[in-house]
């Protein structure tokens, strides 16, 4: 029993050098691909923060695998009626035009595959990333600067507040694919790095393919909250984020792939025979 326990400790000690745990934080921008197409404005300054785990295998398996758990802010902004303001000198650019903006918070879980190479005597790692992503959307706010008609009175005052998720019009869950690139600087068991990741959404944030029975009363109950009475039919969300990463390698030994060397294959020793 004692021998088995000792062997287990030794195995864990050797394998633990392949694992790293890190915290991440960054910012970026987000937007949606509404269909029918709308005049969109990127939402800058969205944040992300989270933790990540990576397992680095031997080189023959090409790269590492890992899982991230991130708290993210995403969103979209669009101009409902750009033709009303395009020739108006009071609106010199798209951002100054009346628009609708929604920001929401998500818990995103990417399952990451990360091919990489080491440089500078194993003190620098450069990598690519590919990952399917899964999200849960749990809170949201909105801002509507479009003139609204409330109780037969038109007002140009911006309307903003908490956006209420409703199962008949909003998707709590979403998924997509992400790709990225980055580098890590390695100092003993610690790592510091920077990465950029682009998440391409497949699912819709809005469920407007089918009208729900009380969609016409949205403006009456909460003016400006939901400008989508009949459209869009599609509303996937994309997000680009640049973040910093601070990691710690479990185990004092280096990665096993640092010690791995490609085996030398024997040369062909065949000799040409001149005689028939």
User: How much is the average pLDDT?
Assistant: 83
The helical percent reads: under 10%
Strand element count? 13
The major pleated sheet works out as:
8 strands, antiparallel, barrel
Q: Secondary-structure element sequence?
A: HEEEEEEEEEEEEHEH
Topology (SSEs and partners):
Blueprint: H1 2-15, E1 19-32, E2 39-41, E3 43-56, E4 64-79, E5 100-114, E6 116-119, E7 124-144, E8 148-150, E9 153-155, E10 159-162, E11 173-187, E12 190-201, H2 218-221, E13 237-249, H3 256-259
Antiparallel strand pairs: 1-3, 1-13, 2-4, 3-4, 4-5, 5-7, 6-7, 7-10, 7-11, 8-9, 11-12, 12-13
Question: Can you give a write-up of this model?
Answer:
It contains 3 helices and 13 strands, in the order αββββββββββββαβα. The protein has helices at 2-15, 218-221, 256-259; strands at residues 19-32, 39-41, 43-56, 64-79, 100-114, 116-119, 124-144, 148-150, 153-155, 159-162, 173-187, 190-201, 237-249. The chain is elongated. The longest helix has 14 residues, at 2-15. With 276 residues, the chain is mainly beta. Helix content is 8%, strand content 50%. It starts with a helix and ends in a 17-residue tail after the last helix. The strands form 2 sheets. The chain has an 8-stranded antiparallel β-barrel. It has a two-stranded antiparallel ribbon with strand order 8-9.
């Amino acid at each position: 029993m004692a021998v088995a326990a000792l062997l287990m400790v030794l195995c864990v000690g050797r394998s633990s050098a392949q694992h790293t745990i890190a915290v991440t934080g960054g910012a970026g921008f987000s937007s949606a691909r509404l269909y029918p197409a709308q005049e969109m404005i990127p939402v800058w300054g969205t944040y992300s923060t989270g933790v990540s785990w990576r397992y680095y295998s031997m080189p023959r398996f090409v790269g590492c695998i890992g899982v991230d758990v991130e708290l993210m802010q995403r969103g979209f902004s669009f101009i409902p009626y750009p033709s009303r303001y395009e020739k108006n000198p009071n609106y010199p650019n798209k951002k100054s035009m009346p628009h609708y903006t929604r920001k929401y918070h998500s818990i995103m879980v990417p399952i990451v595959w990360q091919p990489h190479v080491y440089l500078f005597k194993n003190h620098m790692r450069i990598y690519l990333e590919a990952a399917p992503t899964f999200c849960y959307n749990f809170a949201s706010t909105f801002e509507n600067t479009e003139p609204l008609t409330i109780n037969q009175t038109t007002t140009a005052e911006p309307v903003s507040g908490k956006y209420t998720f409703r199962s008949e019009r909003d998707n709590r869950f979403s998924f997509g694919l992400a790709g990225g690139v980055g580098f890590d600087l390695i100092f003993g068991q610690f790592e510091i790095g920077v990465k950029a990741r682009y998440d391409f959404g497949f699912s819709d944030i809005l469920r407007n393919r089918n009208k729900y029975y009380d969609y016409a009363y949205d403006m009456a109950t909460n003016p400006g909250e939901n400008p989508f009475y009949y459209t869009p039919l599609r509303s996937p969300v994309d997000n680009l984020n640049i973040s910093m990463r601070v990691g710690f390698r479990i185990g004092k030994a280096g990665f096993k792939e640092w010690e791995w060397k490609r085996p030398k294959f024997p040369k062909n020793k065949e000799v040409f025979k001149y005689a028939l």
